[in-house]
From TrEMBL:
This is UDP-N-acetyl-alpha-D-muramoyl-L-alanyl-L-glutamate epimerase. It is an enzyme of class 5 (isomerase). Residues 308-419 form the MurL C-terminal domain. Pfam families: MurL_epimerase_C (PF26298), MurL_N (PF26299). Belongs to the MurL family. It catalyses: UDP-N-acetyl-alpha-D-muramoyl-L-alanyl-L-glutamate + ATP + H2O = UDP-N-acetyl-alpha-D-muramoyl-L-alanyl-D-glutamate + AMP + diphosphate + H(+). It comes from the Bacteria. Its EC number is 5.1.1.23. Pathway: Cell wall biogenesis; peptidoglycan biosynthesis.
Amino acid sequence: MSHRSHPERARGAVFTYVGFELTSVGLLTCAYDLDGERFEERIDCGASDGDFDSEAAQALARLVFLLAAVSYYKTGAPARISVPDGVTDRERKFLRDLYLHGLAEFAHTGGLDLSDLVIEGPARDVPTAQARTTEGRPLIPFGGGIDSIVVVEEVRADQPDIALFVANTSDVPFDPIERTAAVAGLPVVRARRHLDPKVLASRERGYFNGHVPVTGVLTAVALLVAATQGRDRVVMSNEHSASEPTQLVANGVRVNHQWSKGFAFEESFRAVVADAVDGVTFYSALRPYSEVWVAQRFAALSAYHHAFRSCNKAFFVDADQRLAQWCGRCDKCCFIDLVLAAYLDRPALEAIFGGREPLADASLEAEFRSLLGAPGRPKPLECVGDEGECRRAVLLAAARPDRQDTPLLARLAAYVEESGLPVPSEAVLLDQRGPHFLP
C-alpha cells in the first residue's frame, strides 16, 4: 500500500463540468473537460416507460452529473474544479468532501495530496422539484452479496412492492448478481454506465488511476431511476462498519475504502437530495448493524448459499478475466468465510467455496491477521468489516465443535486472546449501534 503509481506525472490545471442532457427515453449524457480534453459518460437508465421529462428527473440527473465527474477528475487531479453553472453552498461543501474523502485512497496509493482543492463557480439557488412517487415502493441496489440479500429479505417482509436495481459497467452481466437476483424472484430495473473509453485506457494514456467512490455515483443513479418509476425510496445495504476508516492518511483525512458507503456520505448526500427533490430519498437499512448481525441472518437464508459469490475476481469489468468460482484467496473471500464461520458449519462453507475455503489454507494467515488489526498489518482497502467484529467472529467460529480441527482458526483465536486488543461482545454486535436514518 506504499506503492506510488505516478509520482513523476504533473497534476492538471483545471477540471470543468461542461454540462448534461437527459432524454425522454432515459439516456443521460454527462460531459467534462480536463485542460481541453473532453470526456463523456453515457448512462442508459433502462426503463423506457419512466417519466424522464419531469423537473424531478432533471434535478436528479444533475446530481448524477455532479457525482459521476469523479471518475474523470482523477485522470489529472487538478487543484481547481470549475462548475460554470454554479452550485449551492451545500453542494460545494459536499463536492469537496466527495473529492477529498472519496479519493483519499486514490491519493494515498498515487502519492498525491489533493487538500489544495478549490471548487469554483457562482452561487446557485436550486428550487426543490416534486417527484411523483407512491409511498412504500422501495428500489434496492443489488450486488448479490450477503448485505444486499439480507436487506431484500428484511424489507420485503414489510414492503412487498419492491424492485431490485442492478447497475452494470459491462455488456456481459455478472453471473453472481444474476443468480442471486433469480433466487429473490423480484422485478429487476437495470442501468448501464458507458464510461468514456479514454478513462478505461488510463494506463496507456498516462492518466492517474485508482479507486473512486463508485457507490456514491450508483446511489445517485438509483435515485434518478426510482423517481422516474414512481418509487419513493432507495434502500441501500451499507452496514455500521463501512464508516470506519483505516489508519492511513491522505488529503488531510483518514483513508476509508468504503467512504461513500459510510454514514458521513449518507448524511450529507441526503441533505443535498432533499434540497433538490421532494418525494424520494434514500437510506441504508443496515446502517446501525454489524457484519456479524448480517452474517447471522444470512446463515438462515439457505436458498442463496450456492448462488451468491462475494469474490473480487468475479466482478472484473473485463468479462474474460472474471472467475467462474470463488478464488478462495482474496481479502473479500477471507472476510466472508470468517464472518460466516461464526454461524455456518464447516461442511456448509466448504460447499459454498467449492473446496477453496480460505480458513482451510494455512498460507492465508497474514491475510486473516490484517482483518484482525495485527500490528504492522493495516486493514485491507476492501469492503470488509471492522477489526473488532472480525476478532469476535474468530472467537465465535473457533468455539464451534465442527471447527476443532481447523489449525489456522485456532492460531487466529489464540492471537486474539493473547493480543489484548478490544473484542466487542456478540450481544453488542447483534444490537443496533450508532445513528441511522431508518424510518
